[in-house]
Description:
Layout: H1 2-7, E1 23-27, H2 31-43, E2 47-52, H3 55-65, E3 69-73, H4 81-90, E4 96-101, H5 111-114, E5 119-122, H6 128-135
Parallel strand pairs: 1-2, 1-3, 3-4, 4-5
Helix pairs in contact: 3-4
Amino acid sequence: MRLAAARMCPHARVHDDAGVPVALMIVDDNERFRVRARRRLEADGYAVVAEAEDGASALEAVRRHRPDVVLLDIGLPDTSGLSVAERLTREPGPPAVVLTSTHDAADFGDRIASCGARGFVPKAALSGDAIAALLA
């Protein structure tokens, strides 16, 4: 019974299991960015398990693939990434959400902190280390 309870802890989903890659999903409407991000993050040891180009497909893909981390663009064509982050982080056993954008974090005010995301990484600074720092 204790083991089952430990598995339900939402913060226990992202941790270092000595060589086991963290399952990550990329959500961005720019295909070239998704390709570059996938290459970079896989080279840094992440396992990219899914991609999505808009908020609706992101929500469905998260349900299907259950990633540990969702790298989520704030500017999506059908909805705000901030709204998607709020929905994802309210569900049981949520993934860690890391927001990204070509804009500066200051452009979004306190909305990044209030949407449930772990933090923000500018697209130009995207790396496995930057994501790991937010997950620690």
